[in-house]
Design a protein that fits this description.
4 helices, 54% helix, globular
Length: 169
């Protein structure tokens, strides 16, 4: 019986965390794929492209620098009171090459959340894990949307190239 209520609590907490921070949906969020930063304004992309290592941030699955802070003026964690809470920030740009690491990190926090869900003495651990799970789900969605967009662009380019070749024949 407690599992029924725990599941509802998990979904409500995810809704609260994502609502409070007003995080962008995955289709509108910025991401980096093969060294190209997408869905950011030109000025920021130009600045980040000068030296992207300067803005590397956060870690997942024990690897550092799995994302880029696109707030080039300094840390400005929108939606969170914790400084450098990168996953919760609209300025965080995930790097698609670390998708597997984000997924591993997600499973880690999901396990912690599930182990602590029914123990009232570990409520703080449960809530921390729940928050991290919701942020990582958002990051994974951003990455998967970015890969989908990239694949769609490849198909569109191939179609355009075929049209051009046919016109020349």
């Amino acid at each position: 019986m407690p599992n029924f209520y725990t599941h509802q609590l998990i979904e409500k907490h995810k809704e609260i965390h994502l609502g409070i921070s007003e995080l962008k949906n995955p289709e509108e969020s910025s991401y980096e794929f093969r060294g190209k930063i997408l869905n950011l304004d030109e000025r920021t992309v130009k600045q980040l492209s000068k030296n992207p290592k300067r803005y590397l941030t956060w870690e997942a699955n024990g690897k550092k620098g799995v994302g880029i802070c696109s707030d080039i003026t300094g840390c400005n964690p929108k939606g969170t009171s914790v400084h450098f809470e990168c996953y919760a920030c609209n300025w965080f740009v995930p790097k698609l090459e670390y998708l597997d690491d984000y997924k591993t990190e997600h499973l880690y926090w999901l396990d912690i959340m599930n182990r602590n869900a029914e123990n009232p003495m570990r409520a703080a651990h449960f809530e921390n894990a729940l928050r991290n799970v919701s942020y990582l789900e958002r990051i994974i969605n951003i990455c998967e949307s970015g890969i989908k967009t990239f694949q769609e662009e490849l198909v569109e380019n191939k179609i355009e190239n075929e049209k051009i070749n046919l016109d020349w024949e």
